[in-house]
Amino acid sequence: MNKIHVSVADWQKDIAEIRRIREAVFIAEQSVPPELEWDADDADAVHFLAFEGDFPIGTARLLPSGEIGRVSVLKDWRGLKVGDKLMEAVMGMAEQRGQTKQFLSAQVYAAPFYERLGFKIVSDEFLEVGIPHVDMVRGD
């Protein structure tokens, strides 16, 4: 296996790859309606792509508010620490931008992954697009 690396993506240039990953994970696997997956926040977000060699296998975004979202890794690459590398890049960028407090809405099954990265659950469980989520925060 090639080394996994993460880069800041260009929304305009990399939109096809970002869409391919998010559509595979959220729309195809998790049945999120397409009209709920794509929103106006994408235009203002910093996007990240994880690669194996030169093949994009994961993505995430950071909003100007410090909210992290759309963290997704293609099925065949899960369990290989791709999510860790994506989140390290996103959290590092947030901190560089002075966003010492980051937050996200995590699918309940993924909460332990985010807790390992220093996030704490700050809400009761709630449904978002029919999937149980919790709000989580990291930092001050």
TrEMBL record:
UniProt cross-references to InterPro entries, sorted A to Z: Acyl_CoA_acyltransferase, Bact_Acetyltransf, GNAT_dom
CDD domains according to UniProt: NAT_SF (cd04301)
Keywords: Acyltransferase, Transferase
GO MF terms, alphabetically ordered: acyltransferase activity, transferring groups other than amino-acyl groups
Coiled-coil regions listed in the entry: none
A family per Pfam: Acetyltransf_10
Gene3D superfamilies linked to this entry: 3.40.630.30
Record protein name field: N-acetyltransferase YjcF
Organism expressing this protein natively: Pseudomonas antarctica
Domain of life: Bacteria
Positions of transmembrane segments: none
EC id: 2.3.1.-
Residues annotated as domain N-acetyltransferase: 4-140
